[in-house]
Amino acid sequence: MGAEQPGSTETVLSLVGVTKRFGPSTVVDRVSLSIGRGEVFTLLGPSGCGKTTTLRLVAGLERPDAGDITLRDRLVASASRGFSLAPNQRNLGMVFQSYAVWPHMTVFENVAYPLELRGMKRAAIRDKVARVLDLVGLAGMDSRPGTLLSGGQMQRLALSRALVYEPDLLLLDEPFSNLDAKLREQMREEVKILQRRLGITVLFVTHDQVEALSLSDRIAVMSNGCVEQVGAPRALYEEPSSAFVRDFLGQTVILRGTVDSAAAQVVVKLDGALAGHTLVGRPVPGLTLVPGSAAHVAIRPEDIEVGLPDGGAAHANRVPGVIETLGFVGDRYEARMALGGELRLVLHLSRARAWREGERLDLGLPPARVSVWPA
Fold first, then answer.
1. What CA–CA distance (Å, rounded) separates 31 from 11?
2. Cα–Cα dist 217/204, whole Å
3. Distance between the two ends of the chain, CA-based, in angstroms?
4. Are 268 and 297 in contact (CB under 8 A)?
5. To pair with 212 at 20 to 30 A between CA atoms, which of 17, 174, 177, 263?
6. For 339, how many CA atoms within 13 A lie in the half-sphere containing its CB?
7. How far apart are CA 258 and CA 114, in angstroms?
8. Considering only CA atoms, which of 222, 74, 98, 95 is closest in space to residue 171?
9. How many C-beta neighbours within 10 Å does residue 83 have?
10. Cα gap 107→130, rounded to integer Å
């Protein structure tokens, strides 16, 4: 298990035009992806978006209705050629939600089983099992029955069993969903450290944005069986290419208005209770904005700058807000703000100052952080 840099030029997994149908429903629709050696690549999306079915196609648990799947330059599934290799012929490691730990076996027997199936000699099995159990923090638990493990230990055991035969690709399907919040965060960090140490290539499936953003080298955001956008976590968060990606990742404040002018920067006159206020932002590449057309102005709440009103006239990229409710949560205040009496949003305010409910504030929207979308 030699370490490789994430995103190596060597392609481990390739999907080209992969489609899967169940009856009249197309659950995976012409998906094309490429994953490099040593990369953590995540399929992220809501329930029913096709991410788990995509993983099952890679694993060989489903057959594609169209397209090809290649693993380390070896074609493992092709709809046009009418074949799909069985899971045990693909050299994949798999960890699923349920862990699938065999309760009648000890920790050692659980991890050794895949090696025994491959006909490996007993001495080699002992060495490999001892090494992988040490890597995941289960050393000394060889003889413990699977039924006596905690949730975190069972997850480590499932990882050990998937890693012990050095697979070409590790598949993780919602592996942290059965853990409580604190343990989920701990295991997320442990898996990241382990992946970096071993340089293994991972295809990770989750609906949890925090897991995806913190663990991944690249993410494919999926919706209705299609890939909406692929990119590095920060790029997806800061530069979404579709309204679905924009709204699915994190929180977004949306203001409505009319395009006044459209060039390198777009000027939008706000509607409704914020009429008379003007915002300047950047257009989204590939989307057309026409003067006089309706527009949505988007910004992340954490990018909004909070100040006190100066009593002057309305300024570009500044709108008034009022604190409706205020809660102190230790390191900050959480304020529910009303903008123009219509829009509500939650902002985090510094505890360096005392705030009060009903207080009027001046909210600045930096043009570089504002994106303008066709309505």
1. 16
2. 11
3. 50
4. yes
5. 17
6. 24
7. 62
8. 95
9. 11
10. 11
What's the CA gap between 85 and 161, in Å, rounded? 21
Nearest to 137 by CA among 206, 205, 189: 189
* Helices marked H in 168-208: 181-198
Nearest to 283 by CA among 170, 364, 368, 198: 368
Residue type, 152: G
In whole angstroms, give the CA distance from residue 339 to residue 218. Answer: 35
Q: pLDDT tens digit string along 109-138?
A: 989 988 888 888 999 999 989 988 988 888
The residue assigned the tokens 């897991």 is: 211
pLDDT tens-digit profile of 32-86?
A: 999 999 999 999 999 999 999 999 999 999 999 999 999 999 999 999 999 999 9
Give the rounded percent of residues in the chain with a pLDDT score beyond 90. Answer: 66
Helices (H), 99-180: 107-117, 122-135, 151-163
d(CA 373, CA 256): 10
- Residue 91: left (phi > 0), alpha (psi -120 to 50), or beta? left
Adjacent-strand bridge partners of 327: 334
Q: What is the pTM of this model?
A: 0.87
What is the Rg, in whole angstroms, of the alpha carbon atoms belonging to the chain? Answer: 25
Side-chain-side CA neighbours of 331 within 13 Å: the count stands at 0
